[in-house]
Design goal:
Layout (H helix, E strand, L loop, with lengths): L6 E4 L6 H11 L4 E3 L3 E2 L14 E2 L2 H9 L3 E7 L2 E6 H8 L4 E5 L2 H7 L7 E6 L3 H11 L4 H17 L8 E4 L3 H11 L1 H12 L2
Parallel strand pairs: 1-7, 1-8, 2-7, 3-4, 8-9
Antiparallel strand pairs: 3-6, 5-6
Bound molecules: adenosine-5'-triphosphate (ATP) and ligand LQESDW3C.
The site of ligand LQESDW3C has 15 residues, from strand 5, strand 6 and helix 4.
Enzyme class: transferase
Subunit structure: Monomer. Interacts with RD3.
Catalytic activity: GMP + ATP = GDP + ADP
């Protein structure tokens, strides 16, 4: 696929991926574009269909997967999630750096494609902090919270596996984590800025 190298964000639910990537997209709106995933989970208050996710039924999602419309898909905490080819192409057509926010199954599957992204692992400072963040976010039932915490334990181990991620950020203090993220992506950011000035 053409355009600048995409960036994959992964890490446990509640680690702060959305928080960090939204800051990045706000500061560099002409540099980054978000790959809007499909999901079968219900929208949270404030989430917008087509912006945060494409909210679909299981039947519609399975049909689209069977038709080969997805680069990757996974079941996370009982819901289906997936990155469509169209979502990535829509960002790349604008010559923006495509940001994907995906779980570790997605990372493993993207590794088998020719997307060639930069892999960024966002990790919480500890399980206790992660649990507090997820509880304070007030988006989960006790059941879905437990599923996410269980997945997080596996995810934190995955984050330590060698040769998977290019960048590891421990999101303890938000400003520090954001500074590290900008630093890690500075080369790509400057390349896209330069290209847009000369076009
Ligand atoms: N450094 C931080 N310090 C304190 N709170 C934070 C920090 N980063 C994020 N948060 C808060 O933690 C909660 C989880 O963050 P966020 O929703 O960005 O996580 P996520 O990794 O995108 O989760 P999910 O994978 O479930 O979408 C949010 O309420 C957010 O405001
Ligand atoms: N493999 C994929 N994982 C995805 C995708 N979109 C989001 N996600 C991951 O799901 C969990 C839960 O997200 P939430 O919005 O319900 O909290 C989180 O880890 C995301 O990174 C996708 O397209 N593919």
């Amino acid at each position: 696929m053409a355009g600048p190298r995409p960036v994959v964000f992964s890490g446990p639910s509640g680690a702060g991926k959305s928080t960090l990537l939204k800051k990045l997209m706000k500061e560099y709106d002409s540099v980054f574009g978000f790959s809007v995933s499909h999901t079968t989970r219900n929208p949270r208050p404030g989430e917008v269909n087509g912006k945060d996710y494409h909210y679909v039924t299981r039947e519609a999602m399975q049909k689209a997967i069977d038709k080969g419309e997805f680069i990757e898909s996974a079941v996370f905490s009982g819901n289906m999630y997936g990155t469509s080819k169209a979502a990535v192409q829509a960002v790349q057509a604008k010559n923006l750096i495509c940001i994907l926010d995906i779980d570790m199954q997605g990372v493993r599957n993207i590794k088998k494609t020719d997307l060639n992204p930069i892999y960024v692992s966002i990790q919480p400072p500890s399980m206790a902090v992660l649990e507090k963040r997820l509880r304070d976010r007030k988006t989960e039932t006790e059941e879905s919270l437990q599923k996410r915490l269980h997945a997080a334990q596996v995810d934190m181990e995955f984050g330590k596996e060698p040769d998977i991620f290019d960048v590891l950020i421990i999101n303890d203090h938000l400003d520090e984590a954001y500074g590290q993220l900008k630093e890690a992506l500075s080369e790509e950011i400057n390349m896209v800025k330069k290209a847009s000035l000369s076009s």
